[in-house]
Amino acid sequence: MTSVGIMMNEPSDQLSVVTIKGDNFGISRNSTTFHISLELSVRMAEINPAFCAYQVSSSGMCELNVPTRSVSWIDSNTITINITDAALDAGFTATAFYGADVAKLYIMVNQRLALLKSNSQIPTINAERPVVMSVVNPIKNPHGAYRGQIVTVIGRNFGHTQPTTCDALLANLGSASCALIDVTATDTEGSEIGWVNNTMLKCKVTSGSLDQSVPVRVTREGQTNLNSDILFEYLGDHIPLERDAIREQLQQAEDAGENVCRVSCRSMALAA
Fold first, then answer.
1. Domain 131-236 top-level CATH class
2. pTM for this predicted structure
């Protein structure tokens, strides 16, 4: 076996197919027998506890047996495995596959175990890394934001399911964390930030350095996007007040009998 294709986290069955490239996969489908199983990683077993409670291999690992109908013989050098079909047959969805080292792939071809040519090891399936396509601040500057503002990150492979742990999904603007968890939110009001779907997340800007454009990073289950061409600009610690907001503050101060000059100076400082 020479290589194992990437399993993509996309909402299309055609993109949940693992392509296996190698040698000696038989001269035809009818003349070749396959027995294929996935030995799920510890992390994948944790995500699928109900299934893994009953599907345990002889080595004590959680095992997913791939049905024959999910395997397609292309030619003597290529076979494909439809992960979606195999997962649905097993009782959980392919959307639960995230991160590196998702599973070891055991392939028996005519009762012979296929190994990687490079190192004679069992091949490992990895889920595709996140990809960042844009970062948007709908309130202010489209390419940057102030501390405390919420930005929307658009891309793919952020996961089809809600992260189950605090470190399962992370966002960074340069070296600064972009908060995905609102510690002040209550169960009833919910949170404005966090994972939205496979192609979107919203996070709150926490800090940064002025006059720098920094790359946007998204990490899902330990895998981080490789592209660094999507940049973010930190605009400052305080959001400037608009003129209408300053007028409103002055009017409120005047109505309350406060020192309008002192309020005006404070408002001008915030607007600077």
1. mainly beta
2. 0.67
